[in-house]
């Protein structure tokens, strides 16, 4: 008896889902003429908000070097880059924490004047990144170091830590960042 009730409930939910989705599937886009469109206001571009957390509780690797943030081992991410082939490595080690922002904007901007007279010579579009008013930083930290190998588990690993950065609080930003295209287009 209970099985029949569950089957009927499942059938009802499935029927309602199909009924709703079929009405959406028959919707169509309608064109808008220029006169109707002229009374619609809006803003071009993209408005972004976000929150990013990096290794808040440590990473998945547990060994002699990396730990789980409860001991004296490194528990953040490790980013390694080698500027010269067969050379040493620069690393951002024990990278963890987070940040959030609201109001980062992206839009295309035409530069055809200004910039001390260079704008008219440039006469092209650029990507304008509107900086958010504030970025909230939550216990963001990393250590800048030089290393003999990319991974601390590689043979011959030696590392010299130069400095550690710790940021916690709000960063106030103002203005825009312009990204200029390259090439002959």
Descriptive report:
Strand 2 and strand 3 (89-111) form a beta hairpin. The chain has one domain (38-179). Mean pLDDT is 77; it is low at 1-7 and 9-25. The protein has helices at residues 2-25, 34-38, 118-122; strands at 46-54, 77-81, 89-111, 124-130, 134-147, 159-172, 176-179. The radius of gyration is 27 Å and the shape is elongated. The longest helix has 24 residues, at 2-25. The protein is α+β, with helices and mostly antiparallel strands. Strands 1, 2, 3, 4, 5, 6 and 7 form a 7-stranded antiparallel sheet that branches. Helices cover 18% and strands 41% of the residues. The chain is built from 3 helices and 7 strands; from the N terminus they run ααβββαββββ.
Q: What key phrases describe this protein's structure?
A:
185 residues; elongated; seven-stranded antiparallel β-sheet; single chain; 7 strands; alpha+beta
Distinct helical segment count: 3
What is the rounded Rg? 27 Å
- In helices, the fraction of residues equals 10-25%
Low-confidence spans: 1-7, 9-25
Please tally the β strands and state the result.
Answer: 7
How many angstroms does the end-to-end distance come to?
Answer: 73 Å
Going by helix content, strand content and strand pairing, the class is alpha+beta
Q: Biggest sheet, in brief?
A: 7 strands, antiparallel
Total separate domains: 1
Order of helices and strands: HHEEEHEEEE
Q: Which percent band covers the strand fraction?
A: 35-45%
Shape: elongated
Mean pLDDT over the full residue set: 77
